[in-house]
Amino acid sequence: MAMNVSSACFSVFSCKKPNRIRAVASEDFASTAALKTDTEDKLKLGGSELKVTRLGIGAWSWGDTSYWNNFQWDDQKLKAAKAAFNGSLDCGITFFDTAEVYGSPLALGAENSETLLGRKEKMIIPVKRLLLQRSLQLCLGGLVVKVSSVHSRIPLIGLAFHQPGIWGNEGYIDGLGDAVEQGLVKAVGVSNYSEKRLRDAYERLKKRGIPLASNQVNYSLIYRLPEQNGVKAACDELGVTLIAYSPIAQGALTGKYKPENPPSGPRGRIYTPEFLTKLQPLLMRINEIGGNYGKTPTQVVLNWLIAQENVVPIPGAKNAAQAKEFVGALGWRLSNEEVDELRSLASEISPVTGFPVEKL
Length: 360
Known about the structure:
Keywords: NADP, Oxidoreductase. This protein is α/β, with parallel strands linked by helices.
């Protein structure tokens, strides 16, 4: 998810008819569950006809040197990112969250994440655009040229995302609706929308016979603002799919980081030693539950989100091993008692500060 406070985003996806793939999670993570990638194992985004895998991959870190990668990018990290992408496809994951700003010079990055998406298989690839105060309608033509040059000879379908703007959103929503009617995209979604903004966008598009497909927001076991501010309930009521970014709390829920070993870079100012100390009882219980299923803590917390229904988590993968581990969150389910227990334990921890635009 891009750190642009006020922007409109337009996403284009590529699609090629695939062979049916059955992928098995890596033995390194003691998982033998297979992931089917045929229609019954996918879900529609809201009321649209666009179908995605039940878990996606976030590409925010690919090429980024402003927040991730310890402010450095090199050939080894590039190779790892490409392996993450290819490993995801090999495991049947075909939904990738990317943006023009990820890794771009605009974000002080080293290499744009879009350039890493090279294999021509059935993929859903959001290519988000930063528009600021420019009209969305004026940017549609340039966007198609941009995407055509990056993903040449790949048929285009689409999904549009939009960050809430400080000066109003009606024109952006109308522009996204125009994109659907012009056949440039197949679905419209929003990002970081509050309940009111979500309902307004839903009703505005509904008048044109266009369903609102999704709302992409920060959502994890330890950041449950969408449950508290009415966004999750509104998504469920309206049939809008909730796409969860930072679903493993940028690594804090994996068990990798300890009070004596916090994450580096900007994340270290969010997930401090004090916060990680308070997190340990929850992490211990997550680890215990995972042991009962032969799953890692990462797989447990992703499964917790999937168990909320109508949620597609998009964890970020820096390498193939992480991508394969994420697949192990699929094909099984925590019990209702375990879901409730983890929520109760997490409720004892004060959440970190979220993205400011969530409250616009």
